[in-house]
TrEMBL record:
Gene3D superfamilies in UniProt: 3.40.50.2300
Keyword annotations of the record: Amino-acid transport, Signal, Transport
Coiled-coil annotated spans: none
Domain named Leucine-binding protein: residues: 41-372
PROSITE patterns membership: TAT
Domain of life: Bacteria
Matches recorded under InterPro entries: BCAA_transport (IPR051010), Leu-bd (IPR028081), Peripla_BP_I (IPR028082), TAT_signal (IPR006311)
Protein name listed in UniProt: Leucine-binding protein domain-containing protein
Matches recorded under PANTHER family: ABC TRANSPORTER SUBSTRATE-BINDING PROTEIN, LEUCINE-SPECIFIC-BINDING PROTEIN
Length: 416
């Protein structure tokens, strides 16, 4: 019987830019480079624009895995050949149109393996291109159900699809005292957030909680004062925001400025990042979010060793503050490498078939994909974390917790 992500966790505590003009060698992803054979991974990532904070986190995860495999492990043996790894990532500037142009260029120039961007609005059109070209994509930046329910065969994600991401959250909210009775959702009308909110509503209602409001915002948000007025008029116990990083900061700031208090603010994206904590200071304390990895998790395997070993390696080699996004980015590289080793081949279709059958454990957890390509929801579902005294602490599930959840949280004025 498979061990679930919840069962296996134990917590003890909480430049790579290819110029847009760069050309790729044709005819596949393996080429000679300084006497060694090299496998090239292509793709785009937001290094600027609205998603740059998290996009660069994922990029640093790619970089960490490639550095480890090339420099510490001497490359990877696939069949009878040993390969080094390289990645050619363009800055898509958080723009889907730019991303698709760049991805099509890479396909035309012979890149055979792709890593994903960040944001379902970018990955959706990008994976349509790689799907038509029959080139695999492994990504850590898109959870929209639309990525995985259109009968695609070549795209894989290390997270569950959006509608299946709230199982742990529902259990967490159900565990709180005093009991959570009324919940409200705010979500943006984009390819990821809407599915996540709808899946969350079902998960919470299945646990006996009432969802009082489902408030939809436009994809790009500049003001939520009217929405917050309605929240103040009839406050829920918990306000859940299924939004991206910038909108999460905006909502929290306007909640502070308008005195909109709830027993718990839960934002699915944003609070994991250093940028969020810097933007909000002490007001970030008490906010709950999801995390798909913790350095205290009892995961281990080849390549990096334990989750803590990965964290130590990352901090030794990179200055950017560590979040779970680095771990998920590195996991994409390991998934590719393990699949290629299992296949004994670098042919794209062989690699795709091996990814579909992948079942292995590493520092990130137990990586296995569903038949549709998203992460197995029982093995790769999220932890629940809370900002406490400037740190991100795992608070649920209990066997993984480094700290007890603060609930109800202090009012905004008491956090100043």
């Amino acid at each position: 019987m498979a061990i679930t992500r919840r069962q296996v966790l134990r917590t003890t505590g909480s430049g790579l830019i290819a110029a847009a003009a760069a050309r790729y060698l044709p005819a596949g992803s393996a080429h000679a480079q300084a006497g060694a054979k090299t496998l090239v991974f292509g793709g785009s990532i937001p290094m600027s624009g609205a998603s740059a904070e998290t996009g660069q986190n994922v990029l640093f995860g790619y970089r960490a895995a490639i550095k480890k495999i090339n420099e510490d492990l001497g490359g990877v043996k696939i069949g009878n050949e040993t390969y080094k790894l390289d990645v050619k990532m363009f800055d898509d500037a958080s723009d889907p149109s730019r991303a698709t142009t760049l991805i099509q260029r890479q396909v035309d120039e012979g890149i055979n393996y792709f890593l994903g961007s960040f944001g379902s609005n970018i990955v959706l059109p990008s994976c349509a291109i790689t799907e038509r070209a029959r080139r695999p994509m492994v990504q850590a930046g898109a959870g929209s159900d639309l990525v995985f329910t259109q009968k695609r065969k070549y795209v894989f994600g290390v997270f569950p699809r959006a509608s299946l991401q709230f199982e742990t959250s529902a259990d967490f909210l159900k565990s709180l005292t005093p009991a959570v009775k009324r919940v409200a959702f705010i979500y943006t009308n984009d390819a990821f957030s809407k599915f996540q909110a709808e899946g969350g509503k079902k998960a919470l209602e299945d646990k006996g909680m009432s969802v009082a409001d489902m408030i939809q915002l436009p994809a790009q948000v500049s003001d939520v004062s009217t929405v917050l007025s309605s929240i103040r008029a009839n406050p829920p116990d918990v306000l859940i925001c299924c939004v991206h990083d910038d909108a999460a900061i905006l909502i929290a700031r306007q909640m502070v400025s308008t005195g909109t208090n709830v027993n718990l603010l839960y934002q699915t994206l944003g609070p994991q990042t250093e940028a969020y904590r810097q933007a909000l200071g002490n007001y970030a304390n008490g906010v709950v979010t999801q995390a798909y990895w913790s350095e205290g998790a009892a995961f281990k395997g080849s390549y990096f060793g334990t989750a803590k070993d990965f964290a130590d390696y990352y901090r030794k080699n990179f200055d950017r503050p560590l979040t779970y996004h680095m771990a998920s980015g590195a996991a994409c590289i390991l998934a590719y490498v393990e699949a290629m080793k299992n296949a004994g081949s670098i042919a794209p279709e062989d690699v795709r078939d091996a990814l579909a059958k992948l079942d292995f454990k590493c520092f990130y957890g137990h990586i296995r994909f569903t038949a549709d390509g998203d992460g197995d929801p029982k093995l790769l579902g999220p932890l629940i974390v809370q900002n406490q005294s400037g740190k991100v602490e795992v608070v649920f599930p209990e066997e993984a917790a480094a700290a007890k959840a603060v609930y109800p949280v202090p009012s905004w004025k008491d956090r100043a």
